[in-house]
Amino acid sequence: MWQGWQRYYIEGIKQSFGCGFTELVPEKHIARKWRFKSWPKGGFATITLTFVDRNGENELCLEG
């Protein structure tokens, strides 16, 4: 499931936002810089998505 979601996520984001992954740990977390195309050149935000397995359920933590 992880690889399919990752592929979908990456392609969708590339169409709407600028992209730049800073760290990618499969099944653990994604850290990246991103920006809206309308933001001034050089303006980025950094976010981290952390995936936590909770006995068969997934928890997604977003930090930015």
UniProtKB/TrEMBL annotation:
* Pfam families hit by this protein: AHSA1
Say which species the protein is native to. Cervus elaphus hippelaphus (European red deer)
User: What InterPro entries does the record tag this protein with?
Assistant: ASHA1/2-like_C (IPR013538), START-like_dom_sf (IPR023393)
Its protein name is: Activator of Hsp90 ATPase homologue 1/2-like C-terminal domain-containing protein
Q: Which family does it belong to?
A: Belongs to the AHA1 family.
Which SUPFAM superfamilies does this entry report, sorted A to Z? Bet v1-like
Coiled coil stretches, renumbered:
none
Residues annotated as domain Activator of Hsp90 ATPase homologue 1/2-like C-terminal: 14-62
